[in-house]
Amino acid sequence: MGDALVTSKRLADGAAIIDVRGELDVTTVAAFKTLLVDTIDRERPARVVVDMLHVTFMDSTGIGALVVGYNAAHDVGARFEVHNPSQFVHRQLHITGLTDVFGLPPVASAQHNAPARTRARNERAEPAADEQQAHVDPAG
How far apart are CA 58 and CA 89, in angstroms? Predict the structure, then answer.
């Protein structure tokens, strides 16, 4: 269980941008859902964009919060989009059948657009020796 930072801003074209960073799980999702729904209800934007570039983990409660946000946006006539999901988050949304709902391409398209080295690494059953030694600090 981790931490999440959620911020919102309004663009000149009236879109509401919700920026999410960290982990969306049972311990952090309440703040995300509250900010998302309050922003939609208060600002009534024409478009809501949830930027998930820096989301490192999302469980079913995070998916549920996105659905709540989608429904809130729909209620005020706004488009709801998810942008920049990690491969992990994208896969979670694909498995649940929500990629189309949130304006995302199917997983196959996302993999197709990835650099060749990334595609090759993802297609191997076992990582290469140099990749096993690599350590990525999600907080850094």
Answer: 6
State the helix-helix crossing angle for 60-75 and 87-95, rounded to 10 degrees.
70
Q: Is residue 68 part of a domain?
A: yes
pTM of the entire predicted model: 0.73
Identify whether 137 is part of a domain.
Answer: no
What's the domain range around 51? 4-106
- Coil, strand, or helix at residue 58? strand
Q: Each residue of 35-90: pLDDT tens digit?
A: 999 999 999 999 999 999 999 999 999 999 999 999 999 999 999 999 999 888 99
Q: How far apart are CA 67 and CA 73, in angstroms?
A: 10
136 pLDDT band (50/70/90 cuts)? very low
Residue 9 lies in a domain: yes
What CATH number does the domain containing 42 carry? Answer: 3.30.750.24
